[in-house]
Design a protein that fits this description.
The protein has 128 residues and is an all-alpha fold. The protein contains 7 helices and no strands. Helix 4 runs antiparallel to helix 5 and helix 4 crosses helix 7. It comes from Bradyrhizobium forestalis.
């Protein structure tokens, strides 16, 4: 598969998970410095990885929430909380994942993850 095909596959999945408005805004906001990273992440994260068989999107969302909570990456965590809801996770399931982050990665990481997840829930509920 060519680089262009992987990018297009990735773009489709990225829009389905994160929302077309967010992705379009993100792409439009890329400049000469950030464009390569935006294209690379779309091609490899979304095109090469998220389209692989064997693990469904719901499971990928679970893994991402745990990793992003553990790494304390608030911006990406909020995005992926919203994506996890689209991929079929419930708020209760997300809560349980973040409790596990708190136990295994430390309470401060868990507290930040909960704070960011709540912000994501509020944005989803407000239609943002």
């Amino acid at each position: 598969m060519s680089k262009t095909e992987l990018f297009e596959k990735g773009l489709k999945v990225r829009k389905e998970v994160l929302g077309e408005n967010y992705v379009n805004k993100s792409i439009a906001g890329a400049d000469e410095f950030t464009r390569t990273m935006a294209e690379w992440s779309t091609e490899f994260c979304w095109g090469a990885l998220w389209t692989r068989p064997g693990v469904d999107r719901r499971t990928r969302s679970i893994v991402n929430l745990a990793m992003l909570g553990a790494l304390n990456r608030p911006h990406e965590l909020k995005l992926h909380v919203k994506g996890a809801l689209k991929n079929g996770l419930t708020k209760e399931e997300i809560k349980e994942i973040l409790l596990q982050v708190a136990v295994y990665c430390g309470v401060p990481a868990g507290i930040d993850a909960f704070r960011n997840a709540r912000e994501a829930f509020n944005e989803v509920d407000a239609g943002s």
